[in-house]
Amino acid sequence: MKRRRVFEPFAVKAALYLLGFLITGAGVVMLLRTQHAGPWDAVSYNLHRFVRSFFWAGYTVGMGSFTINGLIMLMVVLARKKWRFLFMVVPIGGISLSIDLWNVIIPLARLQELGIMGTSLLYVAGTFVLTLGLATIVVSGYPAMVFEEMMLLLMDVFKIHSVFAVRLGMELFAILLAILLGTLAGVGFGAVGLGSLLLALLIAPILDLQLRWMKGVIYETNNEKTA
Hints:
This protein is mainly alpha-helical. It has helices at about 10-30, 40-55, 60-80, 90-105, 115-140, 145-160, 165-185, 195-220; strands spanning about 1-5, 220. Helices cover about 70% and strands about 5% of the residues.
């Protein structure tokens, strides 16, 4: 029994890749509007508020995302000394543009104005949409985001074998960094909330579930018997 990709053509895989950018950007913006964003998205948002306050009023959330992810990519490239990691600039740029598309050009409904219930619904929906977008990028087969490479780098450098421990450490560091940037920008915690900590704990298992069902769609089983 073999498994093969249902969507093999280059055009289809490229379309999945681009669709993943759009979906991920929508999920990021939905979570930002709850003020309980994912840890690294909170860093991007609070950096954007800091730069807008002191340096450049036109600095967008997408630019903040590109800056943070670009710096992580450069760290990985310099540490690994392999230029192939520069290809991660494609998803970095794609998601940054998507964030600005949803955040500026096509504003989403502000469900959190309905109160705690609206915010909770938006948070749950944003978590689903974000992980769906990331899973779509992964199953396309093209370069994913930088955090997995950074996680592997830290595991090698510090000789840690626990993926959960390293990833959780990364997310907690991001929350602290976001709070620092938000404080400096005068917006307090900014996009950091209790939901940010919850997302740091849950995003990996939720993403795994998304990948499981998507791979069931992307791949089909070939039951042809061999002679």
